[in-house]
Amino acid sequence: MIRSLFGKTPVLGKGVFVAETAAVIGDVEIGDESGVWYGTVIRGDVMPIRIGARTSLQDNAVIHVTAGRFGTTIGSDCTIGHSAIIHACVVEDLCLIGMGSIILDGAKIGRGSLVGAGALVTPGTDIPPGSLVIGSPAKVKRPINEKEREQIVFGAAHYVELTRAYLAEGR
Fold first, then answer.
1. Quick one: fold of 2-168?
2. Domain segments of the chain as ranges
3. Strand, coil or helix: what is 7?
4. What would you report as the CA-atom Rg of the chain, rounded to the nearest whole angstrom?
5. Taking the C-alpha atoms of 44, 45, 47 and 53 in order, what is their torsion angle to the nearest 10 degrees?
6. What does DSSP assign to residue 151?
7. I need a labelling partner for 37 at 20 to 30 A (CA). Which of 1, 61, 135, 164 fits?
């Protein structure tokens, strides 16, 4: 479902896949070749949400904002895992946010970081670029290694291909 709200209509780039059970609402912009998978909710009702190109928002992810305080920005070539909550924060380019992770208000995940499954990134936390982040509350464990960096790039590229395949099949 793509829905206008309060005079704002979502803007989708070229080749964006939005699953039939996903909801994209209000002041939302999504870059080219991104995928919004089943059950995902992107609700730009009271502040803007900006999502870069080639980003995958996997099944049941929730992307939201905080009224009057924080919008949400997710960069390009990111993978947001199943059931992750991205709330009123910034996720820079080339990040992998693990399944079930929660990123809260005012937090910033630096470029090329990997947030492990189930991590809780508390409000205002600033994660340096290229970090492996785990735990609840989340802590930087170490810089990511080359294998992890390759995993992030491969995962993003894989979901671009899957997005193209779904669009080609006509959903």
1. UDP N-Acetylglucosamine Acyltransferase; domain 1 (2.160.10)
2. 2-168
3. coil
4. 15
5. 10
6. H
7. 135
